[in-house]
């Protein structure tokens, strides 16, 4: 082991113990790095072709602590360990920056490493489309889609608008500012433009006002600064329950039990659905046995009572898809998004 | 309400919850002292611990981490010029000069007392008027936020010190730094040079640590041999007169801070700057702000703690997080199965009133814990320079790396350290740059949102009542400083006698030195 010298000149009297303590502390700090650095790919594939991880699994959240991706990564990591589904430990690594692109680049650099996973959602399609990431979903191995949430189209409780068509009419008359929680061309805007377009409205004519997050958009709506807003259903749950805001429609294929009074777009003859899906992916080049191991692992995780309880409280609906289906789903979404963004002139 | 509060204390004073208050504020203080490591990541990392707990105990503990961190953040601002959390940057403007003058003990005591006072004002506000404040919080839309930020930016005039032009240059640089990244209104990248690391903009704390702490280190190194005359640590005892002097600013800033905190778009950092510049403007001795005026420590410290408490209003009454930290608290509450929102007070009164009561207890605990520790903290200043300088550098590097785990950011930190050093050498004040950085981004965003909503009509800023009032206040607030600046310039020109100039030179250099110490 490399000798680590104390950063402080040793002084008579205090020298020995302090220098030693520092040396120990420094060594302790370096140790995990050293361990992480050795051992490349690995894992064991037994005679039947089944594979198991042989060192800690790392789940990357391509965002800072506290956001949606971080919550998913930490919830999965904690439950995988506490429910005894893995023998190895599961660690969460935050790689924030560039709307996810920094984290994706980090994972892309670990090609064929079966001990690295990352959590993902629609931005993995939308950010590369905006030209802000060198990697897109095709550069990774889909593992599984886990859960989904939907968009709700909100108006103040006392608004005259009753149906989604009313909103589209107001948009076409040029009389509606609609707030959303993310920038133009990103998730909230696409969910809005796609629905307006499907309802036969002029998606390019929407006055879309981007805010920092659904919370800010809803506050602006409550204060009457915008006329309508689009937000994730779970974000809006409290406001809907309290009757401060009213949802004209939800973007789910079927009515959602938590919001029995909110009709879907399909119910209103608007042929559009939008999933805020959440899933897990891995670097490119994983072997089939490795993919199969993780597919099963996450399917098992979702069956646990703990997952059911926690995902419900976070407003997620189970939407498991295995690797193949998830990959096909991602491709479909991309062509759909391309169409919508072309429609509004952002692609 | 009183019986509800009694009920709240009944919840908060169980041995278990008392323990969690204690753990929360202790962890918060330590996290606050370490630059970079903010309450946001601390709370996110504590969520797994909180998961198994009773939701009320969990929120009591996590809230303790939050206001504890804001409380503790002042310590490193004052002692090292390295702001521990974003909300305490303004504290270093006068706190660090005080420490250099050997009044570190006093500065820390003032910070502790005014934090406690501000926090208490906040809790009283939260208790008395939280439900009715929800409508105040939503009355601020993009138009109003823009006007508020304009008002905040006029503080540049008072923060600029002797040379208004240099102050404005510094502020403009700050605003320019705020523009780096993906534009939130058009999704176009600006000034990023195709570096993905810059897509999300420049983290505020990196700039603050660079231009304050690292630049200070460079200045110290530059003075090598001459021996930095660091004052010893005087007692932390404040005389009755000193207390009387800081009381009115503390109370005013507490109220101002609370209301700023209630606005979802503002928060503790904006509150601390607003109150600092307000106090500087209305104080008779405003000119000595930035050179170790105790009021300059009391005002931002009171405001940031009041704002931290105030930011619970939109969280608890609307379910809308008013800051990054409360966004994470919201996530924590959801995991615990509590949905904050308009129904919180009726559905979960025990939790709300328990939290309020725990904040009273937490503030008192913070004060009792911190006052005896001040002499210990202040000993930092007696550390020989050869140890202190590397320590500050390590603090900054660890703090920035802990924020993003990005080596790129360390490069940025160094770059801003050099920029800060060059600014100091050439008498450009750093405070306006920080102000421009914090407020400029918010100002631009709200301006463009407002214009999008108004269909490009600029008149909204003066026709909406709240916005018009704030803009008028902004214009008025600049008048006295501008008049003074113009008058000084005119006076300076006419009194250009050679003898007077050379005699004045010495005095000017002295005060310049004091000025550069501040920034």
Description:
The complex is a heterodimer of chains A (347) and B (519). Chain A has 347 residues and is of the alpha/beta class. Chain A is 40% helix and 20% strand. Chain A has helices at residues 15-37, 68-82, 101-108, 123-129, 164-172, 187-198, 214-222, 233-242, 288-303, 305-313, 323-343; strands at 44-45, 51-52, 57-61, 90-94, 116-120, 140-156, 177-180, 207-210, 228-232, 245-250, 275-283, 317-321. Chain A starts with 14 loop residues before the first helix and ends with a helix. Chain B has 23 helices and two strands. Mean pLDDT of chain B is 84; it is low at 497-519. Chains A and B meet through helix 2, helix 3, strand 8, helix 7 and helix 8 of A and helix 3, helix 6, helix 15, helix 18 and helix 20 of B.
CATH architecture title of the largest domain in chain A: 3-Layer(aba) Sandwich
Structural category of chain B: mainly alpha
**What is the number of helices of chain A?**
11
State the share of residues found in helices of chain A, binned by percent: 40-55%
Radius of gyration of chain A: 24 Å
The name of the CATH topology of the largest domain in chain A is: D-Maltodextrin-Binding Protein, domain 2
Morphology call of chain A: elongated
Name of the CATH homologous superfamily of the largest domain in chain A: Bordetella uptake gene, domain 1
Which class of secondary structure composition applies to the elements of chain A?
alpha/beta
Q: How many β-strands of chain B, per DSSP? A: 2
Main sheet characteristics of chain B: 2 strands, antiparallel
Compute the separation of the termini of chain B in Å.
Answer: 46 Å
Identify the CATH class of the largest domain in chain A. Answer: Alpha Beta
Order of helices and strands of chain A: HEEEHEHEHEHEHEHEHEEHHEH
Shape of chain B: globular
Q: Could you tell me the radius of gyration of chain B in angstroms?
A: 22 Å
Low-pLDDT runs of chain A: 1-40
Number of H- or I-type helical stretches of chain B:
23
β-strand number of chain A: 12
Measured by DSSP, the beta-strand proportion of chain B falls in under 5%
């Amino acid at each position: 082991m490399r000798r680590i010298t104390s950063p402080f000149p040793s002084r008579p009297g205090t020298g020995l113990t302090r220098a030693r303590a520092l040396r120990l502390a420094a060594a302790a700090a370096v140790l995990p790095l050293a361990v992480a650095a050795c051992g490349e790919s690995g894992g064991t594939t037994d005679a039947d072709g089944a594979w198991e991880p042989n060192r800690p699994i790392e789940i990357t959240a391509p965002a800072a602590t506290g956001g949606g991706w971080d919550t998913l990564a930490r919830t999965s990591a904690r439950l995988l360990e506490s429910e005894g589904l893995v023998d190895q430990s599961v660690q969460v690594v935050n790689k924030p920056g560039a709307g996810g692109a920094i984290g994706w680049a980090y994972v892309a650099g670990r090609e064929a490493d079966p001990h690295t996973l990352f959590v993902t959602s629609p931005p993995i399609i939308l950010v590369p489309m905006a030209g802000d990431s060198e990697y897109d979903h095709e550069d990774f191995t889909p593992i599984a889609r886990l859960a989904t949430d939907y968009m709700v189209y909100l108006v103040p409780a006392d608004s005259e608008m009753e149906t989604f068509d009313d909103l589209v009419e107001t948009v076409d008359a040029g009389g509606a500012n609609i707030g959303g929680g993310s920038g133009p061309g990103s998730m909230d805007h696409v969910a809005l433009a796609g629905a307006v377009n499907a309802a036969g409205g002029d998606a390019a004519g929407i006055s879309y006002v981007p805010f920092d997050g659904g919370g800010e958009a809803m506050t602006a709506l409550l204060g009457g600064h915008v006329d309508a807003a689009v937000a994730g259903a779970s974000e809006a749950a409290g406001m809907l329950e309290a009757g401060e805001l009213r949802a004209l429609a939800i973007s789910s294929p079927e009515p959602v039990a938590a919001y029995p009074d909110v009709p879907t777009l399909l119910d209103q003859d608007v042929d559009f659905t939008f999933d805020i899906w959440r899933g897990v992916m891995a670097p490119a080049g994983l072997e089939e046995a490795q993919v199969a191991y993780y597919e099963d692992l996450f399917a098992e995780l979702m069956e646990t009572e703990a997952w059911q309880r926690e995902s419900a409280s976070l407003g997620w609906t189970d939407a498991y898809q295995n690797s193949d289906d998830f990959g096909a789903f991602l491709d479909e979404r991309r062509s759909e998004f391309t169409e919508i963004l072309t429609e509004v002139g952002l692609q | 309400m009183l019986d509800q509060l009694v009920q709240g204390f009944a919840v908060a004073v169980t041995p278990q919850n008392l323990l969690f208050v204690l753990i929360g504020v202790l962890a918060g203080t330590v996290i606050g002292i370490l630059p970079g490591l903010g309450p946001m990541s601390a709370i996110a990392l504590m969520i797994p611990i909180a998961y198994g707990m009773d939701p009320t105990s969990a929120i009591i503990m996590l809230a303790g981490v939050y206001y504890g961190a804001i409380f503790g953040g002042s310590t490193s601002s004052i002692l090292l010029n390295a702001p521990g959390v974003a909300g305490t940057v303004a504290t270093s403007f006068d706190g660090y000069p005080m420490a250099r003058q050997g009044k570190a003990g006093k500065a820390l005591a003032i910070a502790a007392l005014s934090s406690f006072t501000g926090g208490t004002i906040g809790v009283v506000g939260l208790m008395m008027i939280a439900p009715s404040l929800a409508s105040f919080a939503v009355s601020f839309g993009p138009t109003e936020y823009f006007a508020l930020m304009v008002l905040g930016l006029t503080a540049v005039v008072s923060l600029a010190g002797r040379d208004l032009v240099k102050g404005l240059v510094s502020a403009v640089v700050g605003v320019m730094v705020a523009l780096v990244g993906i534009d939130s209104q058009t999704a176009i990248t600006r000034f990023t040079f195709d570096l993905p690391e810059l897509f999300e903009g420049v983290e505020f704390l990196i700039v603050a640590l660079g231009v304050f702490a690292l630049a200070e280190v460079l200045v110290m190194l530059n003075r090598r041999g001459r021996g930095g005359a660091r004052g010893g640590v005087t007692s932390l005892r404040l005389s009755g007169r000193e207390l009387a002097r800081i009381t009115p600013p503390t109370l005013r800033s507490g109220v101002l801070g609370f209301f700023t905190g209630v606005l979802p778009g503002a928060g503790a950092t904006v509150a601390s700057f607003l109150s600092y510049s307000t106090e500087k403007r209305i104080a008779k001795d405003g000119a000595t702000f930035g050179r170790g005026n105790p009021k300059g420590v009391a005002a931002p410290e009171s405001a940031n703690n009041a704002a931290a408490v105030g930011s619970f209003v939109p969280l608890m009454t609307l379910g809308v997080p008013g800051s990054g930290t409360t966004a994470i608290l919201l996530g924590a509450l959801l995991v615990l199965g509590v949905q904050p929102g308009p129904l919180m007070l009726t559905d979960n009164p025990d939790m709300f009133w328990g939290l309020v009561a725990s904040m009273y207890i937490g503030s008192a605990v913070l004060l009792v814990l911190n006052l005896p520790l001040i002499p210990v903290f202040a000993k930092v200043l007696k550390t020989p320079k050869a140890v202190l300088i590397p320590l500050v550098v390590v603090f900054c590097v660890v703090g920035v790396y802990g924020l993003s785990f990005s080596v790129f950011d360390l490069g940025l930190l160094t770059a801003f350290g050099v920029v800060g050093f060059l600014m100091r050498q050439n008498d450009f004040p750093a405070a306006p740059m920080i102000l421009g950085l914090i407020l400029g981004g918010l100002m631009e965003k709200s301006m463009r949102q407002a214009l999008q909503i108004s269909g490009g009509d600029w008149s909204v800023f003066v026709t909406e009542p709240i916005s018009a009032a704030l803009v008028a206040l902004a214009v008025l607030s600049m008048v006295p400083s501008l008049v003074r600046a113009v008058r000084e310039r005119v006076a300076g020109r006419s009194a250009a006698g050679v003898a007077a100039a050379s005699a004045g030179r010495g005095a000017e250099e002295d005060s310049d030195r004091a000025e550069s110490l501040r920034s």
